[in-house]
Design brief:
Layout: H1 12-29, E1 36-38, E2 44-49, H2 56-71, E3 76-82, H3 83-89, E4 102-108, E5 112-115, E6 130-138, E7 141-148
Antiparallel strand pairs: 1-2, 2-7, 3-4, 4-5, 6-7
Helix pairs in contact: 1-2
């Protein structure tokens, strides 16, 4: 969940790419979304609890997956729902205590949906080319570092 209680202005292409990678990691590996994220304009990193190190082939497959969605020019939309409705659909553990009863869900087509207060692109083609620049696995944590061009 990428709720941002400080309403920080993220770089929309990078933040949208993060959603795509997070959604696919959760689907493929059952690890949930990143437990730690550092999203910046030039490079970003996500950390996942994972029981094995991702191979080069797995990393390239993730990279290809994100780039295929970027090329498909999928619309990025939002919906507003009540917290009670959100509880049935999302992990609410990172929702700030002072959050309003209405929360925002960001959708990237059928590829990802997530509670989020951040900024995003209007279509995935605005993300640019996605590249996993490095990764590291230690003590059950898989870090993925990625860049856009």
């Amino acid at each position: 969940m990428e709720l941002n209680p400080h309403n920080k202005q993220e770089y929309p292409p990078m933040h949208s790419a993060e959603h795509l990678l997070n959604g696919e990691m959760a689907r493929r590996y059952g690890c949930g979304r990143a437990f730690s994220a550092h999203i910046e304009r030039t490079k970003s990193k996500l950390d996942y609890h994972l029981d094995h190190q991702l191979s080069d082939l797995e990393l390239r497959s993730l990279e290809d997956y994100v780039n295929d969605i970027v090329k498909a020019d999928i619309p990025v939309t939002e919906e507003f729902i009540s917290q009670s409705e959100a509880m049935a659909r999302f992990d609410m553990s990172r929702l700030p205590d002072n959050a309003s009863d209405t929360v925002r869900v960001v959708h990237i087509g059928d590829y990802d949906q997530c509670l989020c207060a951040g900024t995003h692109v209007a279509h995935t083609s605005e993300i640019g080319s996605f590249r996993i620049s490095s990764s590291r696995w230690a003590d059950g944590v898989q870090r993925i570092v990625f860049r856009l061009s």
